[in-house]
Design brief:
Helix content is 29%, strand content 20%. The protein has 128 residues and is an alpha+beta fold.
Length: 128
């Protein structure tokens, strides 16, 4: 049996570390995709929402002008604190809390942030 070299050990570690990314990528590829300008199968900005998810109030709505928003003129809030979201070129959405896990809608970004916070309070993100 060949001796385990540093190079082989690092290669094996990289493969193991990349496995969750490959699974997440495959899962996202299986989701329906409507393109960057039509993420919901309809034209325009995503619809507003206001709901309680896992005991946290999440809200989202279009905003005029966009200002410092990278979400294409869309604002998302968790318990009244703005969750900065950004729309990617492929139409997916990310937030400052879960930026390595793109989702299909701002509502999904808010829910992912609540999951990631695990009960912790969302702190305001300082605008530059």
């Amino acid at each position: 049996m060949p001796e385990l070299s540093r190079r082989r050990a690092l290669t094996a570690a990289a493969v193991v570390a990349g496995a969750p990314f490959a699974v997440a990528t495959a899962a996202r590829a299986a989701e329906p995709h409507h393109g960057p300008h039509d993420p919901h199968g309809s034209h325009g900005s995503p619809e507003s929402f206001d709901e309680v998810y896992r005991g946290r109030r999440i809200q989202g709505r279009p905003v005029a002008g966009g200002g410092h928003h990278h979400g294409g003129g869309y604002a998302v809030y968790v318990d009244g604190v703005e969750l900065h979201v950004m729309r990617n070129a492929d139409g997916s959405w990310i937030s400052v809390v879960s930026h390595y896990d793109p989702v299909s809608t701002p509502r999904a970004a808010a829910r992912a942030a609540v999951d990631e916070l695990q009960g912790a309070r969302l702190e305001p993100f300082p605008a530059a």
